[in-house]
Amino acid sequence: MKKILKKILKVVPVKVRINKFIADSGFASRRKVEELILEGRVEVNNTTILSLATQVDPEKDTVMVDGEKIKPKRHLYFILHKPKGVITTTDDERARKTVVDLIKTKEKIFPVGRLDYDTTGILFLTNDGDFSNYLTHPSNFVTKEYKVKLNRPLESNDKTLLTKGIKLDGKNSRFQSVMAKDKSFLVWAVKTNEGRNHFVKRMFAKIGYRVTELHRISIAGFSADAIPVGKYIEIDEKELKKVVKWNE
User: Tens digits of per-residue pLDDT, 35-68?
Assistant: First the structure.
């Protein structure tokens, strides 16, 4: 029975919705692709399709839009150990170095979320919009850990406030954990699943502290601390999905 099941599993095609397949190729946005389908301009294996629910096997099916063959796009995932003095964007009007400049690839990629100019640590770069949306969308509560250095020792009652909750942007906000990293009580490790801009710095500022150094240790269980500063590694999608489960 096990042998039979293995044979069956091997031949089951991995299918995706037609609009996702075409959008992922870079041909057009999903909304535009849906318009093209409803207009009868999309063919699968020489047959015009009109249903947005149509699924295709990227390895076997031939997809055409207005007679042009759509080639599946290979998703890329990079983990960068971001250094200070680099902008987290795809380009900069002041010609400053960006995180994209540090990755050697011919494909168009973009950073997942943001790290400030003076913040270091792990940063994902990819060409997969679904993966990026999963990591950054607040509803997914993706955990991030930071090492924080403060301008003065954190007092015990203030540490309690940070874990119990304080008002920020009109809502109760807190860190999942706050742990001292040295005896001076200047360096701390904090965990949060918040995605608001400058959340860590603003939390400390709210109770009268200034963050002098900020380093992102991990996100979704992945770290860049074993990677030299300014360097990167490429991660396989299968390896990512052992930990991070984003929508197909």
Answer: 999 999 999 999 999 999 999 988 789 999 999 9
DSSP 183: T
What region, left, alpha or beta, does residue 132 occupy, with left being phi > 0 and alpha being psi -120 to 50 degrees? alpha
Average pLDDT of the segment spanning 191-202: 93
Distance, CA of 196 to CA of 171 (rounded, Å): 12
Give the residue from 119, 117, 131 showing the smallest Cα distance to 217. Answer: 119
Residue 195: both structure tokens together? 């995605």
Annotated catalytic, 101?
no
143-219 under CATH 3.40.30.10, yes or no = no
The DSSP result for 187-213, as a single string, is EEEEEE---STTHHHHHHHHTT--EEE
Distances (CA, A) of 96 to 90, 99, 124: 11, 10, 20
* Structural contact between residues 117 and 161, judged by C-beta atoms closer than 8 angstroms: no
Our CA angle for 54, 52, 62, nearest 5°, is 45
pLDDT digits (tens, 9 = 90+) for 99-151: 999 999 998 899 999 999 999 999 999 998 888 989 998 888 999 999 999 99
> Among 116, 130, 158, 225, which one carries the catalytic annotation?
116
Task: Return the CATH class of domain 77-138+223-240.
Answer: alpha beta
Token digits of residue 132? 């990026």
* Per-residue pLDDT, 128: 86
Instruction: Please give the CATH topology (third level) of the domain spanning 2-69.
Output: 3.10.290
User: Strands 120-126 and 211-219, how do they pair?
Assistant: parallel
